Amino acid sequence: MQTPSATIPHLIAAGFHALSDPLRISVLELLRQRELCVCDLCDALGVNQSKLSFHLKTLKEAGLVNSRQEGRWIYYSLNLPQFSVLEEYLAGFSRNCIISSARSCCD
């Protein structure tokens, strides 16, 4: 079982991986406006459901989207706390970050 400190790097890596595809970015942009069902996402993006399902699975595994089932439809929405984790990670690089020169090695 992973410890919480081991889970954070995994979530960060999965989040950035999920953000590395233009179609997944398009999905997230649509979900910024409101929760949407798979059929609405397919129509808006002009892709078939099997292709979109693969990308939604990646976004869900990265924790970037939530899903809920209502009848036979699955609705997706943004999981804003996970975006905050990624934002905080990146912000850590610009806050009080001093990069020192490398030490000489193998002298």
Question: Could you please describe the fold and organization of this structure?
Answer:
With 107 residues, the protein is of the alpha+beta class. Helix content is 59%, strand content 13%. It has helices at 4-18, 22-33, 38-45, 49-61, 80-94; strands at 36-37, 65-70, 73-78. Helix 1 packs across helix 5. It is elongated and about 65 Å long. The termini are far apart. The model has no long low-confidence stretch (mean pLDDT 89).
CA-based shape: elongated
- Please indicate the percent range of residues in DSSP E strands (runs of 2 or more): 5-15%
Helices and strands, in order, run as HHEHHEEH
Largest sheet: 3 strands, antiparallel
Q: Which assembly state applies to the chains in this document?
A: single chain
Fraction of residues in helix: 55-70%
- Alpha-beta content class: alpha+beta
Ends: how far apart?
42 Å
Nearest-integer average pLDDT: 89
